[in-house]
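Subgroup meeting minutes
Present: P.N., E.W., G.H.
Scribe: E.W.

1. P.N. recapped why we're keeping a running log of single-chain structure predictions: easier to compare across weeks, and new members can see raw inputs and outputs side by side.
2. G.H. added today's entry (475 aa).
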Amino acid sequence: MTVLAALLDRSVEQIAKAAADVRRYDREAIRAASDVWDNNLFPLFWAASTASADKRERRALTALEWMAGLGERRRGWMTEQAALAGYELEPLLPPAKPDTPGRDYRGYVMTPACRLAQPTVDDLVPDYDLATAAVRHLRVERAGTRLTAFLQLVAPRRYAVDESTPTQPALLNVALDGVTDAVFDLSATRGAALDPGAGGIEISLGTGGRLRAASGEYRLDDHSWHLSAAGRRADAVTPPRTGRSDRLPPPPAGDLGADARAAAILLRHAMWELRSVRYAARADRVPVLDLCQAFAGAGEAILAAGSRRGAARREAAFRDVIRTWADRSGPALTRWIAAVLKERADRPDIIEMPRSPERTPPSLTAGSPVFGTPSQAALVMAAWTAAHTDYRTERPAAAVLQLALPPRPDEPPSAPWRLRTVSCTEPDAFRLHTDAFQGPGQLTQTGRPTAACSLDLHHGAMVIAAPDGWSASVS
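Output recorded in log:
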């Protein structure tokens, strides 16, 4: 049980570290650590909620085995984080099962995730014409002290498909880690070549575009893959779909008391809020550090409350835990906690809803200061998406930026930098070079953010021109 509780506390610590300085923001680390608890929080509360030490340990072991059964990556994360907390996890778990290809609901073999290596690239070439592939999406993003990239190519099939059945184009999704070089502009959107060598991976794009990285993997999004040469080979060695899952059944979690359930619902909503940074447009609106401060040590607190003798004492302890979380929060977060308890847990009586701040009508002479574009910024993420049709919906070309901006003029110089996400449609220019990620640099805005406008960072290392302006001002 202490291991299970420690994994929750390690998650909160990991998320706080990933957001501590937005100049080294790690959006994926926040998403991954919070996503663990989407379907594992209620099993944790179920395991903790008994005064019997033996029963608590049996329940916790069931919860840990269920959590580890969600894939090799999840199990690896658990083992790593438990070790950082001072625990050895592997002796508690059954042997890991190999991650083998499966079949979808139609019975067709599913595409596996493959490490980018020469043999796996050789498997692609007979089935997909990469020389005529088109870039649909490219994202280069900071992840702490390193860079990552995600590239999506529309890859024409070389193999025959049933022309009487409408089918989506085949998409090749490439994830790169440890990016050392990225060069891309709108002349590099046609044609691709993958070269995984001993010194790393190089991807050539169009005329002069390239990505270099230490490692990577790819996965095909192709509903017709079972007809390809690689798909037929996989089909021959993949067992038929039986309808039964090899996974363990989820632990029971329905016998929580009303206050333990309220605490579980509140904490799960907090994890959902943190996980929403996966959407770039929301990342700068999620109060990551405030949530981490409120819920720090939640695993230890849940264990202490759940192990009280007697149902009434346990329930009182869980109410105290919720109030402690609220006491650590500012007014805005406390109002959010009160709303979740009222609307999702049907427990409006645990904490008092703080009064909303009074709204003062804006003054024409003494309104809040309006600041222009700062002269400096640090690039956190830059992404471009081509115009395309997605399930009969027309999507325009778009660009998205995440910038770390310095404190405003009315803030002390020691104030933390802040995250800002802006986007535009149909960009006239999108030019990106790895030098744009070298830290704070000169930011120049030409034009007005609500009209034709361009942003230049690090003297041309990143240039994006938005003919119709940006979704928000860069200020």
